Amino acid sequence: MTMTSMPHWRKSSRCTADANCVELAGHASDAVAVRDTKNGPDGPVLMFTRGEFAAFFATIKEGGADLR
Question: What is the 8-class DSSP label of residue 33?
């Protein structure tokens, strides 16, 4: 997938002004774009289908990715 239009990026609500954060953006192609602010606005972007992202988020909420 390619980014054909400028997405509206949203930072995590837990992000502070001086922290590197994860940003998400919806995309017209029914995708979710994810980037890391420490790489700047021109850094790499990961693209997921909405279904893939929903499954990932559900796993996180259930504790399935807890690395402790």
Answer: E
Residue 3 has pLDDT above 60, yes or no: no
- Domain coordinates in residue numbering, the chain: 10-61
Answer whether 0.85 is exceeded by the pTM. Answer: no
Sign of CA dihedral 48, 54, 55, 57: positive
- In the sheet that 10-11 helps form, which strands lie side by side, from edge to edge? 10-11, 22-27, 31-36, 46-49
d(CA 2, CA 28): 11
C-alpha to C-alpha distance for 6 and 49, rounded to whole angstroms: 18
pLDDT in tens, 22-56: 899 987 778 899 999 888 889 999 999 999 999 98
